[in-house]
């Protein structure tokens, strides 16, 4: 079958394309913006990419068009599909129909940490010899691909609450029908499709409704998640949390004796220590992610001690605090920041790891929610863990980042070009600094431009870290 995918370079659609190729289909696709790492994966898989949405890409007509949720009515390719009467579907529906039926689906959901947690879970199952399939909205370094079919019934999927397509406004995750479900956390996000947190919680309850009675919901010990479960839950539930500062321990799974840089912690299950984790992750949010993975993996038969061994070998995810290079002691990281909480937890986690070293954050508030200004009051305090914040004002954002700088508790300034961003980093960093580039998009290729500029200044080769 010839499948053409509109919006193929999105993390979900690109991963789906690779599964389709692995199943033997001919796959082509198009997108408005084509950039690594997804474009590199697709080209390596032999998929022909077209820049833009000219209707000519649909000639000769494919057997099926899969339409990404970033496309809407008025898009030339979408209009051509409808006008020609071509068969079409959504990515989430096709995933369900062709890959998830009859499989034990482990779905990872929540506002933050889905990609990393799903990557951890897939790796733990792989380490335990379970050869899982997976589809993840990022590239786990332990696999170097974002999707694969796998050789057993187990399939890990990153379960996104964003809507399915212009013709299906349900959240994508209602199509996945998990037997094991992780709900990491819940905050208001995706202001372009949700009016408030209650609207998001309603979709999460729809997801909970799809878990069978013999399944398991692994849920964070947070009020916003509890409110979802209180709407009705027909499955076994296990809660997870970290030990509170006052010594209170909540949840079936609890992390205790956590090192200051979270490089080590003990795992309690119903009051008994069942594992100790030693790893290279940063931030308390990572500890919670790890607990959720331990619980979900145990549901499919992986003992916590084995899962802890796997977490010690977890190599992270591309674009999630990925170290791109080290130039004379200036380390440059790429992080997929989409929300103030994500920015805050990442910066605080790095601060705990590097101590008094200089931390410089270069941030593009690119998500629809941040661009619309819904989180503007949270952005300044989210960056308290940095020594300096360089804010990039994206084109088309109808409010000024100057007000964030005005309320910042650390030195900060606004930049209006990629060139100015690179120049500022060069001027304001020195050996021993840590530079975090934070955006949920390509950020104008600033990452590689910055690395090249640092190499030129210091005369040193970049090395991956």
TrEMBL record:
It catalyses: UDP-N-acetyl-alpha-D-muramate + L-alanyl-gamma-D-glutamyl-meso-2,6-diaminopimelate + ATP = UDP-N-acetyl-alpha-D-muramoyl-L-alanyl-gamma-D-glutamyl-meso-2,6-diaminopimelate + ADP + phosphate + H(+). SUPFAM superfamilies: MurCD N-terminal domain, MurD-like peptide ligases, catalytic domain, MurD-like peptide ligases, peptide-binding domain. It holds the Pfam family Mur_ligase_C. This is UDP-N-acetylmuramate--L-alanyl-gamma-D-glutamyl-meso-2,6-diaminoheptandioate ligase. Reutilizes the intact tripeptide L-alanyl-gamma-D-glutamyl-meso-diaminopimelate by linking it to UDP-N-acetylmuramate. It comes from Microbulbifer agarilyticus. PANTHER family: UDP-N-ACETYLMURAMATE--L-ALANINE LIGASE-RELATED, UDP-N-ACETYLMURAMATE--L-ALANYL-GAMMA-D-GLUTAMYL-MESO-2,6-DIAMINOHEPTANDIOATE LIGASE. Keywords: ATP-binding, Cell cycle, Cell division, Cell shape, Cell wall biogenesis/degradation, Ligase, Magnesium, Nucleotide-binding, Peptidoglycan synthesis.
